[in-house]
Amino acid sequence: MRWTSLIVAGLLVAVFAGAGAFGAGARAAGPILENEPNDTCLEAQDLGALAGQVTVQGNLEGLGDGAYPYPAPGMAPNLDFFQIATTPGSVIEIRIGGLASGLGTLEDPFLGVFSGASDGCAQLETIDYGGPGGDVRFQYAVNSDSLVLAVTSCCDYSFVNGGFGAGSYSLEIEELQPAQALFGSVIDADTGVAPLPDQYGFAALVELYRCSGGECSSVASNAIDTQGRFSFIHTDAYPVPGSTSPPPQSDNPTYLRLFAGEYQVRVFSPFYEPYASAVVTLEPAGLVDLGVLAITPIPLGTSITGRVVDAISGEPLSGLNPPYANVFLNRCDEFGCANFAGTAFVGDDGVFVFTRESVYDGLRVGTYVLNIYAEGYQFGLSEPFEVTEDAEIQLGDVALVPNPIRFSAWQGCPNIPSRGGDCAYQLDVTSGKRQTTTFEVWSVVNTYNFSTSIGSAFQPEAAERLRLRPGQTKTVEYELRVPRAVSNGTSFCATVYVAEQGRGFYFQPIAQTSVFCAVKEDFGFRLLSDDEARTMMQRIHGVRESGLTRR
């Protein structure tokens, strides 16, 4: 939506967009024909007093040529002004229909609202609903006894005959009459009570649409209360002139500028089919009781339960502590199984449960798969399984295969002497192989100074040979001698690599992990946080790959 607004405080009430959404209501005996000249505010065609609704048939003169009919040389200016007498305190709706609604041939109308000539023709509003085919529908609160309305085309925001379009249009101006309220309640068609909320406390949303000409545009929404009730209530003080009683209210009514006209409500709830009421007429000063709206529940399963375990040891994998297992549920359709449906909490015992309340939009009947993640394990994808109505699905153990190597219990040089000295670091290495395997484990220290753009990499100790049974863990330890004469700004990071035993193992690592990073500063050496260390390693590898260290 393109919208340039020069707003006088308190004047803007609401905006409604919708192709073809042109109003019901009492029409004048017939449309008023546009008269020329009316190409300036001071020359605005006088439409007289607004009584109910006024319709003008107009034309922005020009010669059609392609998608936008550009005005032909010598043709009349491409904008029209109309003056109308209004009632201060009233609300009017202004509609411009062109090609989109079939009420004319103008492709992209612009609406301008100006003060009357006696008030200096000040430009108050510019409204455009964007692009060819965008007709205009706009509500405006009046605070004067006359207004000037201007019709132009894209992109004449200042209304100075700068539009590109030409064609016929219908301009409708209607004084809206306040109503009281529209209300009702929502129930489950099977149980007869209000629909139950999901895990986020959401039960159902009722959306109010204003309709005319066969088109309906959303104007407000209201969440039902615990008893399933909803109400949309006019904001003005009660009683509305002509009304006989105040409207009933739900526990959380929605207040808005509610005017006479045709309306529809639509109900949306995560476990139910969408619902749309019949179109009803709300009379001036009137209220409408929609009664009880029964929404149809979608067939749902009850639950999906399972347990995440290690494929080798059979031990459960915790979601609260390492390896932090996560289980995601995806719904399948004809295009695959990429529709995210929800995530489940995994306990220390590896157990997870999906319920109809916890799944994103209900545990709908259909085909699903699980995606399972855990640190140090290969990604797990379950076989597709079916969920039937009211079913309690028991998946049993869902096994994740460990990575060939897992690292844990990192300890990295917690206290490096300010004058340099010994820096000891270690970590645990666990085998994820299904058979006893011999590994080579070694560490590499990368150093870099960004001021000099010089760095190096070295191995502080020879590779260590480890023979590990499936699931067995051993600790590897290293000692780095940090010299005193390290320049400020020099960073160094230690990485541990693992390869299976064999010729050329240095060239064939199967796993690696960063243990720590430190930097030399004015007052000594500082160990970097995990986030800082990750960033530092990325910077060091980045500049090396760019060739900046080559001399």
Helix and strand topology:
Elements (H helix, E strand, L loop, with lengths): L2 E2 L7 E4 L16 E2 L11 E5 L3 E8 L19 E6 L5 E7 L11 E7 L7 E5 L8 E6 L4 E8 L13 E10 L4 E8 L16 E8 L2 E9 L5 E6 L19 E3 L4 E8 L6 E2 L3 E3 L4 E9 L7 E8 L15 E8 L2 E9 L6 E5 L10 E8 L6 E2 L3 E3 L4 E9 L4 E8 L8 E11 L5 E13 L4 E5 L5 E5 L4 E10 L7 E11 L10 E11 L2 E4 L2 H16 L6
Parallel strand pairs: 3-5, 4-6, 13-21, 16-17, 22-29
Antiparallel strand pairs: 1-9, 2-10, 5-12, 6-11, 7-10, 7-12, 8-9, 8-11, 13-16, 14-15, 14-18, 18-19, 18-20, 22-25, 23-24, 23-26, 26-27, 26-28, 30-31, 31-35, 32-33, 32-34, 32-36, 36-37, 37-38
Write a short abstract of this structure.
With 551 residues, this protein is mostly beta strands. It has one helix and 38 strands.
Textual characterization of the structure:
The chain is mostly beta strands. The chain is built from one helix and 38 strands. The strands form eight sheets. Strands 1-9-8-11-6-4 form a six-stranded mixed beta sheet, with no helix packed on it. A hairpin with an 8-residue loop joins strand 30 (405-412) and strand 31. It is elongated and about 100 Å long. It starts with a strand and ends in a 6-residue tail after the last helix. Residues 1-28, 63-71 and 545-551 have low confidence and may be disordered.
